[in-house]
Design a protein that fits this description.
It is a single chain. This protein is of the alpha/beta class. It contains 13 helices and 14 strands. It folds into 2 domains: about 45 residues, no CATH class; about 325 residues, Alkaline Phosphatase, subunit A. The longest helix is centred in the last third of the chain and has 26 residues. It is globular and about 70 Å long.
Length: about 450
């Protein structure tokens, strides 16, 4: 007769069974109904990082490739064709400089961290976007893909939605002001796709489309439709495929339409005018403000896609007028606002693009694609603020410290959110797929 002691105070899960004991019991056949997936679930729970710092994440994606040397990693001693026309300024952290195009961020540098040594080897826009969001190299050529373009591997937002679930009636994963091209759920399916707000919050008539009841439709008709829908749902309860997917969409849409909390979170017009001006009346600024409202309302992951950073030609006027100031204002306002509301410690904020830009200004007065060096900005969510991690060479061309890769960033994000990055799900081919494919935690950050 087998005797196995369980309930030890060491190495035990929250249900009192340790990972080792669970695997031992499964191997002996004593858990007759415990199939391999359940064993793997117990194993994943036992390996979960303890003490999650962040409850949610705001991901500001500067699509196209922001020039790190013109923003966060200036090279004042380099020739002008490398350093560009912008000049360095001191921040409120002694010894840390950024360019004069980021004066607002310079005043709050003690509240965020600059990672200057991010580096990878994908110089394509759509392929690089796919890599950054999923941690996997794309299986298509750059520019030759549909939108969304990750039909297999889930993006980080979908992983967060699946692992952490909802905190309110708001969807756990939201994109704005349009879909993030590589931000889809992959083989997770439509249940974990982002809710997309395809409206411009800078417009006076901004509202979230399709979330208002049909004008003139009496409550009795609405109630009848709900009853009919619930009857159909009951018939299709065990049906898989598109019918089940659509049922999920209907349920989510109904909960949003009838939710006072959702309406409140989406109502950016309720913000004081001074707050809206602080973020800036730009698409990036107002989307960032709306992201804060959504996180405050219970959303887990908000991805803000900000295009326009593919600066190949005559880049400096647009950088100086339209791009960097908007990012400077939006990011500084967000971090300050979250701190004042007591939300910064539990909200992880990330700002990055899919790549950096070439060290040397080209013949058309622009900068081209350059994935070998890029800067990523982190704030809140358990990160250590007021520091610079890593460094690049005199031309901002490559890290001179240990490079930080895409999966290092993703592993760190998951860990800060309390998600086990090594947890595995089975893909369509029946193979186990880990949430993060390798990488290591950025120890200096956490």
């Amino acid at each position: 007769m087998w005797k196995v002691k369980i309930g030890s105070r060491r190495e035990s899960c929250c249900d009192g069974v340790s990972r080792r004991h669970a695997l031992r019991l499964g191997a002996t056949g004593l858990f007759g109904s415990l199939a391999l997936p359940r064993l793997l679930e117990l194993q994943a729970k036992a390996a979960m990082p303890s003490g999650a710092k962040a409850k949610s994440c705001i991901f500001l994606f500067l699509e196209g490739g922001p020039p790190h040397q013109d923003m966060w990693d200036p090279k004042p001693d380099a020739p002008e064709e490398i350093r560009g026309p912008f000049r360095p300024i001191n921040t409120n952290v002694p010894g840390t400089i950024i360019t004069d195009q980021l004066p607002l961020c310079a005043k709050i540098a003690d509240k965020y961290t600059i990672l200057r040594s991010h580096s990878h080897r994908d110089n394509g826009h759509s392929t690089g976007y796919h890599y950054v969001m999923t941690g996997r190299r794309a299986n298509f050529a750059d520019g030759d893909n549909p939108i969304p373009n990750n039909d297999y591997f889930p993006a980080v937002g979908s992983i967060v939605a699946r692992e952490l679930g909802s905190r309110s009636t708001l969807p756990p994963y939201i994109n704005l002001p349009h879909p993030m091209t590589a931000g889809g759920p992959g083989f997770y399916g439509a249940e974990y796709a982002p809710f997309v707000i395809e409206s411009d919050p800078t417009q006076p008539d901004f509202e979230v489309k399709d979330l208002q009841p049909i004008a003139g439709l009496p409550e009795s008709r609405i109630a009848m439709r709900r009853k009919l829908l619930s009857g159909i749902d009951e018939l299709e309860r065990n049906v898989q495929g598109r019918a089940k997917t659509m049922s999920t969409y209907y349920e989510k849409a109904q909960s949003l339409i009838t939710s006072p909390d959702a309406k409140k979170a989406f109502d950016i017009h309720a913000e004081p005018e001074a707050v809206r001006e602080r973020y800036g009346y730009t698409q990036l600024g107002q989307c960032t403000l709306l992201a804060r409202r959504l996180i405050e309302g219970g959303c887990r992951f908000v991805g803000v896609d900000a295009p326009g950073w593919d600066v190949h030609f005559n880049c400096f006027p647009s950088l100086q007028t339209d791009l960097i100031p908007y990012a400077d204002r939006a990011f500084s306002a967000l971090v300050t606002d979250l701190e004042q509301r007591g939300l910064l410690d539990e909200t992880l904020v990330i700002m990055m693009g899919e790549m950096g830009r070439t060290p040397r200004v080209n013949a058309q007065a622009g900068r081209d694609h350059w994935s070998m060096a890029q800067t990523v900005i982190f704030a809140g969510g358990g990160t250590k603020p007021g520091q610079v991690i890593g460094a690049t060479d005199a031309q901002a061309a490559a890290p001179t410290t240990e490079p930080v890769g895409v999966n290092d960033v993703l592993r760190t994000i998951h860990t800060l959110l309390g998600i086990n990055p090594d947890r595995q799900y089975y893909g369509p081919l029946g193979r186990p797929v880990p949430l993060v494919d390798g990488g290591k935690i950025i120890r200096e950050l956490v």
